[in-house]
Write a structure and sequence with these properties.
This protein is mainly beta and 138 residues long. The chain is built from 1 helix and 11 strands. 4% of the residues lie in helices and 45% in strands.
Length: 138
């Protein structure tokens, strides 16, 4: 998908409101239990986001990208949202399955000018069981 952002921050995670305590503070990414914020290049171009859902088949981000987040998120209603923090551009994907997901985010430029991101979602029980993540592009 291509996403237009008017602010230098892209949000990923639960469709709930993002806590105002969650701040990037100069980092390429920041997270809490339900959201990840990623620094991106605003206004000059669309941000290309590829979303992969892990089903146990070795899916990885573009090898030239840098991982800026690898952790778990709680998705209470089993929907995953990618959008700008202003809520003007949003993509919502119903992912089913468990409520806690392992999320990996890799970007083409971790220094704050990212124009592309790969996001890999995997069921938390797969990653905690030590299985190799797999998936297919959504």
């Amino acid at each position: 998908m291509d996403l237009y952002v008017n602010h230098p921050v892209m949000a990923l995670g639960s469709p709930d409101w993002i806590s105002t305590d969650l701040k990037l503070a100069g980092a390429p990414a920041a997270s809490n239990d339900t959201h990840v914020l990623v620094r991106v290049q605003p206004q000059t171009a669309l941000i290309r986001v590829r979303l992969f859902q892990d089903h146990g088949e070795n899916i990885a981000a573009d090898p030239s990208f840098t991982t800026v987040f690898d952790g778990s998120l709680y998705l209470a209603d089993r929907r995953f949202v990618i959008g700008d923090v202003m809520g003007e551009s949003r993509f919502i994907k119903y992912i089913g399955g468990p409520q806690r997901w392992r999320v990996r985010v890799a970007v083409d430029d971790p220094k704050g000018h990212a124009r592309a991101a790969d996001v890999v979602l995997g069921a938390e029980e797969w990653s905690s069981a030590g299985l190799t993540p797999r998936g297919h592009e959504q």
